[in-house]
Amino acid sequence: MEFSAAEVLSELKNLRRGFGVEDPHVLARAGSALRYIAGVAAEDNPARQREKIKSCLQEWTCALPFDLSFYSRVALALDGSGTERFERRLRRIAVELGRDARTARRRVDEAFERLAEEAMAAVVPPRPGRPETPWHLRSLKTLVLLGSQGAEVIEERRIVSHQDGLMDISHSSTFATAGMETPAVDPGGISITVLQGGTSSGSAWLSATRLGIRVRLPHALDAGRSHALTFRTSAPGGKVLAPYYVCTPRMPCERFDLTVRFDGCPLPHRVWRLEDELPLEAGDTSLRRSAVDVDAVGEAHATFTDLKPNRSYGLGWELTPFRPDLHLRLYPARQVRAVR
Fewest beta carbons less than 10 Å away: which of 67, 232, 243, 315? Predict the structure, then answer.
């Protein structure tokens, strides 16, 4: 089925009328484009149709920046305000902004344009020549927080299924000391948590260095459908994350956005970009690489596209003073694999 972003935007605006997603007439206002993207089937009863539409809207709003997510959720009554009509919800946004209703509506319209983009991105046709894998990673957005109390990594992953009925995935992170051959430090306190997009069905150390977690998706994912998941990996208690952070995908990855924030710890002496590296050479500081600036709030940023499987991409840094024996190296999840 073919449709444009403008058509999706128009249908989203129809949904916000009245009581939003809780309106008795919401199913009549949901057009063919949104129904298709949300996977609404002819045999679904009204309750199931509403559930599918609401679930997708929740997923798409979570992918937006905080302010745009807030405007979208209130405008659609996804925040639990289904007893208020749109005009009253719009006034609440105006109060939050400290502006008039006209400005509030303009902000909501801007948010809905981004929401339409997320909806369009939820259906991704398979690329010609793509390997026969059960899924691929459309995008990975990672925030690495380095502080005196330890390290925390927030990963937002959007996967695209290549098969019908994808329901379970596995996620893992690899921890190691300076030498790849040595085991991880005491694993006490290291954890992976599912923040959004699924439910954990258990975690375990898969090896001396790799911690894995099994995730159950909220609904079966058919071929061409995308789904967003958010994970938090924590290494508290002095387990400083260094000297680099990389993504080494085993399956295709279209985009990787990485931010490393040095918060409550010394700023690095230098930061460099790691791109298309052999995994075992990612920690080699003797190689010449492109320098990356650290901004005024202590953050370094890098973006990569069309990542090659089994190659490493990310940022490396050198703290001052540098003590290799006191540092922990963490690799992000190497893969999200289908469990049949």
Answer: 67
Q: Do 65 and 17 belong together in one domain?
A: yes
Domain end call among 121, 156, 179: 121
Is residue 225 within 8 A of residue 39, CB to CB? The reply is yes
Unique residue bearing structure tokens 């085991």: 183
Last-in-domain residue among 121, 155, 173: 121
* Pairing assessment for the beta strands 328-331 and 150-161 based on DSSP bridges: unpaired
Provide the residue range defining the domain that includes 155: 135-339
The enclosing H or E element of 193 equals strand 191-196
From the first residue on, what is the mean pLDDT of each consecutive set of 10 residues in the chain (340 residues)? Answer: 83 93 91 86 85 85 84 92 91 92 93 89 57 76 84 89 84 60 52 88 71 85 85 72 77 88 83 89 85 93 90 86 45 38
* CA-to-CA dists, residue 220 to 169, 202, 269, 337, angstroms: 11, 19, 47, 15
212 found inside a domain: yes
> What string of DSSP letters covers 53-94?
HHHHHHHHHHTS-HHHHHHHHHHHTTTS-TTS-HHHHHHHHH
